[in-house]
């Protein structure tokens, strides 16, 4: 086959494949439809040219090739990001869903690249965009506005079940559309992470039996309380947080903070809870075996008010799972998304979260998606 039939660009590409693909020259020649001797001749001529070319020309060729590779890498990166973001839309199927995704993503990627990656034409996208919105699309836009507002008010913590209940209580008719619209618009509740906690159980104080035995249900307020201590980081150092929850409505009835783990911290939270709730007979107080809760002063305070004392088993965090869950919620919805400069700043933020959001507003799945305050009010 005469060499004159092949353009210079074709010959250069054949040489590049032979040098960089890792395949045999015979296989490359067969793929390209040229003779093996022809490919060898092109390679030999390339070597001669590299020897004869002055360094400046070779550097210019390398710069052009580097620019081309960077452009290809950017295209591949964009296509990968487009496909990743479009995953939720692909599950719905149909060109309309792809056009909707392009309309959302066009601020981040060129429309040309979006259409090429998703396998649709630009003319089809612009024709779809020029059509008037259907009644269902207009309803989705209105519903999405409500979803975005509620998502912001929830501190970006509500998933689709809580969001559905929130919108229903506002008088909106919603269903599976809530989950779809949240997924398509990237409204995803922050995920909980594991966190480290400390319990000083190496002490000589007496240990009380486990009266709850992981039964966290309660028929009325002030029947079962659960207490625990965790901590969070500030730029001034660690801040310890002690809380007491009423298991009837999962409500925080007492909390206190300190720069150290000591008995007085737990006592402060307990005394706040006693002052606010003034419990009668029949209250059971459950905590872990930490020295703060096993101390003589803490147990004396409980006995003075006729409160039954219950403690978790050795090293079993599930025995106090409700408070553990509260700490995980607090950390995922507040602590892990905030950088506290001072302990005072962190204390104010915790107060706003507990007294301004968690107790009166935040919907709990275990309470049929109402807040602790609402649950107690409905229970009468």
Percentage beta strand = 5-15%
Record field, number of beta strands:
5
Task: Give the fraction of residues assigned to helices.
Answer: 40-55%
Distance between the termini: 94 Å
**Helices and strands: which structural class?**
alpha/beta
Give me the CATH architecture of the largest domain, please: 2-Layer Sandwich
Shape: elongated
CATH superfamily of the largest domain: Ribonuclease H-like superfamily/Ribonuclease H
Number of domains: 4
Mean pLDDT: 82
Biggest sheet character: 5 strands, mixed
Write the layout of secondary structure elements.
Layout lengths: L7 H13 L4 H8 L3 H17 L2 H31 L1 H6 L2 H11 L5 H8 L3 H9 L4 H19 L6 H10 L7 H8 L39 E11 L2 E10 L4 E8 L4 H15 L6 E4 L3 H4 L1 H9 L3 E4 L9 H13 L9 H16 L13 H8 L1
Parallel strand pairs: 1-4, 4-5
Antiparallel strand pairs: 1-2, 2-3
Q: How would you describe what is shown here?
A:
This protein has four domains: 50 residues, Orthogonal Bundle (Arc Repressor Mutant, subunit A), CATH 1.10.10; 60 residues; 50 residues; 156 residues, Ribonuclease H-like superfamily/Ribonuclease H (Nucleotidyltransferase, domain 5), CATH 3.30.420.10. The N and C termini lie far apart (94 Å). Helices cover 54% and strands 10% of the residues. It has a five-stranded mixed sheet with strand order 3-2-1-4-5, with helices on both faces. Helix 4 packs across helix 7. It has 380 residues and is an alpha/beta fold. The longest helix has 31 residues.
Short key terms for the protein model shown above:
380 residues; alpha/beta; 4 domains; 17 helices; elongated
